[in-house]
Amino acid sequence: MKVNVIGQVPKEFVDSEIHAILQENPARAIKEITFERLDGDECKESYELTTVPFERIRRITGYLVGTMDRWNDAKRAEEHDRVKHSL
C-alpha cells in the first residue's frame, strides 16, 4: 500500500482512516491512499482499492461450474453431447 501525505497530517488520523476503510471493504486492499491537509483542520483524502477477481460461472449439465478442468471423461462426453440452445 502506498500512502501519500501532503502537509502535516497526524499519524493517528492516517492510521484510523486506513483502518476504517479496510473495515468497510473487508475483501479488498488499498492500492494507494492520499491525505492532503487543507485550511484549518480539514483534510482531503482519496484512495484506490484493489479489484475483486471475477470468475464467470455457468450452468452446464445441471452443475454450476467455472471451468471443466477437473471433470472426468464421462462428464466431458456428456457436455460434448448436450443440445446447445441459442437465443
What does this structure look like?
The chain has 87 residues and is of the alpha+beta class. The protein folds into two domains: 2-49, no CATH class; 54-82, no CATH class. The protein is built from two helices and five strands, in the order βαββββα. It has helices spanning 11-24, 73-81, and strands at residues 2-6, 30-37, 43-49, 58-60, 63-65. Strands 1-2-3 form a three-stranded mixed sheet, covered by helices on one side. It has a two-stranded antiparallel sheet with strand order 4-5. The protein is rod-shaped. It starts with a strand and ends in a 6-residue tail after the last helix.
How do the strands and helices of this protein lay out in sequence?
Blueprint: E1 2-6, H1 11-24, E2 30-37, E3 43-49, E4 58-60, E5 63-65, H2 73-81
Parallel strand pairs: 1-2
Antiparallel strand pairs: 2-3, 4-5
GO molecular function: ribonucleoside-triphosphate reductase (thioredoxin) activity
Pfam families: NRDD
InterPro entries: NrdD (IPR012833)
